[in-house]
Amino acid sequence: MTSGYDIIIIGTGAGGGTMLHALAPTGARILVLERGERVPQEAENWSPEAVWKHRRYQTTEQWIDDEGRQFQPYTHYNLGGNTRFWGSVLYRLRRQDFEARELADGHTPAWPIGYDTLAPFYDEAERLYHVHGAVGDDPTEPPRGPYPFPAIPHAPGMAGLVAQLRAQGLHPSPLPLGLIRPGEEGGCRLCNTCNSFPCQVRSKSDADVCCVTPASALPNVDIWTSAFAERLLTNAAGTRVETVEVSVRGERRRVSAPLVIVSCGAVNSAALLLRSTSDRHPNGLANSSGMVGRHYMAHLATMMQGFHPMRVNTDVFQKTVAINDFYLHGPDGGHPLGQIQAQGRTHGVMAQIVVPWIPLWAYDWWVARGVDWLVMSEDLPKADNRVTVDSQGRIHLLYRANNLQAHQRLVNEMKRLIRKLGYWLTVAHSHQNRNTTHQCGTLVFGTDPRTSVLDPMCRTHDVENLHVVDASFFPSSAAVNPALTIIAQALRVAAHLRQAQ
Ligand SMILES: Cc1cc2nc3c(=O)[nH]c(=O)nc-3n(C[C@H](O)[C@H](O)[C@H](O)COP(=O)(O)OP(=O)(O)OC[C@H]3O[C@@H](n4cnc5c(N)ncnc54)[C@H](O)[C@@H]3O)c2cc1C
Ligand code: SF4
Questions:
Q1: How many CA atoms lie within 13 A of 120 on its CB side?
Q2: Which helix H or strand E contains 296, and what residues bound it?
Q3: What three-state secondary structure class fits 360?
Q4: Mean pLDDT for the chain overall
Q5: pLDDT tens by residue, 266-295
Q6: CA 371 / ligand 2 centre spacing (Å)
Q7: In Å, what is the CA distance from 147 to each residue of 94, 141, 158?
Q8: What is the DSSP letter of 32?
Q9: Which residues are registered as beta bridge partners of 321?
Q10: Is the CB–ligand 2 distance for residue 84 below 6 Å?
Q11: Domains along the chain with CATH numbers
Q12: Does 196 sit in the ligand 1 pocket, CB within 6 Å?
């Protein structure tokens, strides 16, 4: 048994990495357990072949879907977790996202905290992750001060599209982006291999760059990599975690600390608690509500591309604009539809993965004449959409997408916009039921222990020294990218823990 630590943090992504950043300066002795390794800085970081065709950095783990079929989830185990691969679009939830709301397919629950509670931590999160943006254009922007860094200017082609969108009466606004010194010598190069690629020059504001690597230099922080947390074991009464069972490069070890913070991501945190059964917790740890693993959400996401054979797209970094006009209601005033944002440039190799028999040169020709968008809608927290773990420890992801009609309306609206922007053709591709990119829910937070797993400070209702700080606390998924909210809540929980020390 290894002891002598004050805090164990499991996982180093948006939640765990940020917790480490916020708790390390207290001098508390912290042990970090991370199942992956550091992503090497190498030429392959920016190779579409390596990243997309050979899936160099993606886990090789197999999960099982709701029809019993195995699939390789699109998720990454390494220092910094999925943040190393993110597009760095770092949005605040809208004020309305914290309230109970009617969507086309049913209602979303209110959060136990409101926007104003999280607002100061959003400010801190934006500073920590170098968020660039500008207020004033977005009709859904919640009350806030200026961004810590100015918006990234639009490339010429995108600037033209923004003017056209404005002429149509829409309100395109700058995408809030976490980039370090964009356009400056030695900083972010505003390249076309950002979203889904690790940054070769470490200028993307990810959890490794902003939090884990700086904290690892401190003498009170130990980081074990290739350290897979298998189970959490409690005292006889089942009220406190006493031991973390961890497999370090195949060697089984036991570690202990008075405070345990789980941050494995929504799917893996639920799986860890479900694996941690005992006499006191026969259905999984902290699961007296029966809610562990339930209410999985992932957003409805469709990639769309406008194509025109005579319009070569010369923009390198085109991901700078969002359209939030349909976020709170549809064009006719109906239910909320979701968000539209410019997407990083598609590479021929990426497109070829969808239909492999078309030759690469044809795809390269095609994508050079396309402009890429992501259309995203909220999905509702359904108890039957859930993570389970079978007797062999395999993860089952039972997910049926909902709110499909609202999403289809947004896709149709975007098709109409793309036509009005002068493109001849629209191509659309959806990840559907195996979408794990924006995974959230599974251990929702709330004030009622009968219907939630975590309290509003992300401590489990059932186990007093166990916190879970990652995407799993979301009671609803909203329709903007989730990570800034994970980071802000991590900063809030850390401030609370520091105060309680
Ligand atoms: C390609 C891509 C693009 C994205 N773009 C955006 C974007 O632009 N904006 C945005 O807001 N979000 C984006 N996301 C989503 C964002 O990355 C996630 O919401 C965020 O990283 C979730 O943080 P987390 O802490 O919940 O989990 P993660 O970041 O996934 O971190 C979980 C960590 O736990 C580790 N771990 C898991 N299980 C164990 C275990 N048993 N023992 C030890 N360690 C364990 C993992 O290795 C990982 O390091 C994107 C995701 C992807 C994949
Ligand atoms: S250089 Fe900038 S745009 Fe390119 S991957 Fe790094 S952070 Fe992203």
A1: 4
A2: strand 294-297
A3: helix
A4: 95
A5: 999 999 999 999 999 999 999 999 999 999
A6: 19
A7: 16, 12, 21
A8: E
A9: 174
A10: no
A11: 7-38+72-191+204-500 (3.50.50.60)
A12: yes
The pLDDT, as a whole number, for residue 501 is 73
pLDDT over 90 at 382, yes or no: yes
Q: Give residue 361 CA to ligand 1 midpoint distance, Å.
A: 33
Segment 109-157, tens digit of pLDDT: 999 999 999 999 999 999 999 999 999 999 999 999 999 999 999 999 9
- The pTM score is 0.97
pLDDT tens column, 463-477: 999 999 999 999 999
Atom of ligand 2 nearest to the CA of 189: 1
190 lines ligand 2 (CB under 6 A): yes
For 386, the token pair is: 């859930």
Query: Is residue 206 lining ligand 1, measured as CB closer than 6 Å?
Result: no
Say yes or no to pLDDT of 431 above 80: no
Q: Which of 477, 481, 486, 480 is nearest to 101 (CA)?
A: 477
The answer to whether 380 touches 105, Cβ cutoff 8 Å, is yes
Q: Tell me the pLDDT band of 368, cut-offs 50, 70 and 90.
A: confident
Distance CA 428, CA 141 (A): 28
Q: How far is the CA of 289 from the centre of ligand 1 (A)?
A: 26
Residues in contact with 118: Cβ distance below 8 Å, sequence separation at least 6, in sequence order: 92, 93, 98, 485, 488, 489, 492
Decide if 403 contacts 411 (C-beta within 8 A).
Answer: no
The sheet with strand 172-174 has its strands ordered as 172-174, 321-323, 339-342, 370-377, 300-307, 425-430
- Distance of CA 180 from the midpoint of ligand 2 (Å): 9
311-346 residue pLDDT tens: 888 989 999 999 999 999 999 889 999 999 999 888
